Amino acid sequence: MAVLEVRDLCARYSASGPEVLKGISFSVEADDFFAVIGPSGSGKSTLIRCINRLVNPSGGEILFYDREVTKLRGRQLRLLRRDIGMIFQEFNLIDRMSVMDNVLSGRLGYTGNLRTLFRAFPRDDIQHALNLLDQVGLLEFVDKRADELSGGQRQRVGIARALMQNPKLLLLDEPTSALDPKISREVMSLIKRMTTELKVPCLCNIHDVTLALEFCNKIIGLQDGKKMFDGPAEEMDQSMLDKIYEMEVL
Amino acid sequence: MNKALAPPTAAKPTVDDIIRSQRRTRYARGAFFTLLLIMVVWSVKVTVIDDTDWARIGSLANVLKATNRFIGIDFSLFPTLIGPAIETLMIACLGTLLGVILCIPAAWFGAHNITPYKPITYPLARLMMTLSRSIHEIVWALFFVAAVGLGPLAGVLALAVRSIGFIAKMTAEAIEDIDPGPVDAIRATGGNDFQVVIYGILPQVLPQVLSVVVFEWEINIRRSAILGLVGAGGLGLVFFRQMNTFNYHGVTTVILAILLLILLGEVFSYFARKAVI
Amino acid sequence: MNRALDRQPATPQREWSRFKFPGSLIKYGIWLSILVFLAYTVKYLDIPLDRLLGMFGRLGSTLANRYYPPDIEYIMDLDYLEYVVETIQMAYLGALFGLLASIPLGWFGSYNMTPSRLYVFPIARLISMGCRSVHEMIWAILFVTIIGFGMLPGVLALTFFCTGFAAKLFAEEIEAIDMGPVDAMRASGANLFQIMLFGVFPQVRVAFTGIAIYTWDVAFRAATVVGFFGAGGMGWYLKRNILQIETERVAAILLSIIFLVLISEVLSAWARARVMKMK
Lengths: 250, 277, 279
Known about the structure:
Strand content of chain A: 15-25%
Oligomer: heterotrimer
Largest sheet of chain A: 6 strands, mixed
Largest interface: B-C, 58 and 56 residues
Number of domains of chain C: 2
Order of helices and strands of chain C: HHHHHHHHHHHH
Number of domains of chain A: 1
Distance between the termini of chain C: 64 Å
Low-confidence stretches of chain C: none
CATH class of the largest domain in chain C: Mainly Alpha
CATH class of chain A: Alpha Beta
Radius of gyration of chain C: 28 Å
Largest sheet of chain C: none
Low-confidence stretches of chain A: none
Number of strands of chain A: 10
Strand content of chain C: under 5%
Order of helices and strands of chain A: EEEHEEHEHHHHEHEHEEHH
CATH superfamily of chain A: P-loop containing nucleotide triphosphate hydrolases
Helix content of chain A: 25-40%
Radius of gyration of chain A: 18 Å
Number of helices of chain A: 10
Structural class of chain A: alpha/beta
Mean pLDDT of chain A: 85
Strand order of the largest sheet of chain A: 6-7-8-3-9-10
Number of helices of chain C: 12
Number of strands of chain C: 0
Structural class of chain C: mainly alpha
Shape of chain A: globular
CATH topology of chain A: Rossmann fold
């Protein structure tokens, strides 16, 4: 069964603006680590953000576990987002909160307003957070403030926060482009290891083709909002890459 | 940011540790807010419950009735408002200008990179700024009314003195932040201190200072509109008269006129600041 | 003319003049019109410029003869000190209630976080602008007419004033935040309240504390004089003594106001420095 099925997705920034996505279709299966590649400005980030509706698509359908989600609003939309974890390029941690509170914030979709006010998360959540922090190797940093950490460490907190949601799908929006190559690889393999273990399918928007080919099993290539390639990673070759990145080569 | 952090030596935390430390933060916060609340209760008791003549206020309906008297506009007042409105505006302009002139020495002394003799002039300027800012314009106006008599002059002086603090403080900060390059360049060509100020410092800080002055002017309109209450001319005097003759619709009219004046000032200052920067 | 310069080989003639045709004309025109306007203003307001210079002498002698020595004993009286405490309480309540009211107002009036840009945003902005534009003295007079003399109108006047004052600054702070954490909270399925608590509040907490201290300064400064129009506190003492021409007492009261405001400023400067260090 397809976890996520996207049909003819279109999106634009403003009601009268140009289309950023021009009818994209693809589907993500339960054990996929799915990569979206393409030159900058090709609509990768918009595509990812349409899935959890941080950007509202202007047309097309998104089926998440066979449920149409492009028209959801209010509580239903929050319940959808709760099921989809997201890891950001700029980490988007809450700088002035501790690592623990940052990880726990992934639980907000499950938490009531009163508990949020007093930051009184249930015991199970704290246990879960500690386990995740242990797995990403940051257990000693629980009480550190997020802005005291290095880039790689911050992204690890981001991973723990996203997995805290017990997501049924993980969105990765350029998770490594703010990191140096060595740390990038570490972070990617950490994500790969943990999502395989937890059986969470991933949809990853990535700039670095080498990383995409190394970690992902399926790839779609975007150029100027249109899909240029869709297939297993093994089928991706240099001529196809040249075609996708044509704009940048010229 | 990227420097490696030495892992803290503490033992691996358990759930109970976390919950305990969270509880401690919550209690500390609770204690702080309780203290705040106790002070509120005490203050409310003293100022609101004991001091208020509840019998006079009567019921909520009475209060609403009293408020209701203000709803309405006295159109007959319009012609008599124009003169005072212009007067208010002019008091604000002159007050701001005089304030700018007065703040030159304050800003010069108060910027620690150009102050002539730091141990004395710097604290002197700071004292000037603080005094000017910390005393309410009504008090300044009372003071100048006593000194130069009733009339717009007292208002102008009050606003001027009240403006020194803010303008001088912002100007001094702007001077402290300048790029020392041009200053060195002027010095290198053999310029004297005055030339350094005119060619090295002034061009760098002028846009910021002008925008601060326009901002202060905008605030001074708001202030000058009430100085008439203590006899320093402008719309405040009309307001006072309407209040004393219990012409409540007139009061509302004057307030609306003041709001209109402030709005005009805000629009003007928005465009002026855009033009400056 | 310098001879050495004259003898230099002729270079193609380049003209440079400080005066550029339309630009400079407009510039000087603006300066000239400002000057004319100022001259006209002085005339319109009937300001006796000749008296301005003599003012300082007279000011000095008036101060020396009538306002000196300040009647310090008068302000050491227990009755007066009680009024000082009440003034502080009034400022405290006004600032606190104003700050409480301005948190939602600042939120609704911030373009990036407002629940509805079409309805809530303009209404919140309008309320905060209205509160801010009406001078605190006018608020005080209005409330005195509606509910009579006392501290309550003072507290209400300060509340309204502080609401407008702080709401604008709060809104500006919220508009300056990094939207990244907000996106992250939205993506995790948090509701609007939770987004505010986790995505926005930690980012503005320090700035808010600074604004709160600043609001207290403004509120206390105003509280010392709202009594002038019957709204309680020290201002009422000031008014009574001015009316009775007790100049030495007036001097003492003014001194006490300056002293208290200075102390409050020093304390809040210290508090602000500490808060900023906390980051």
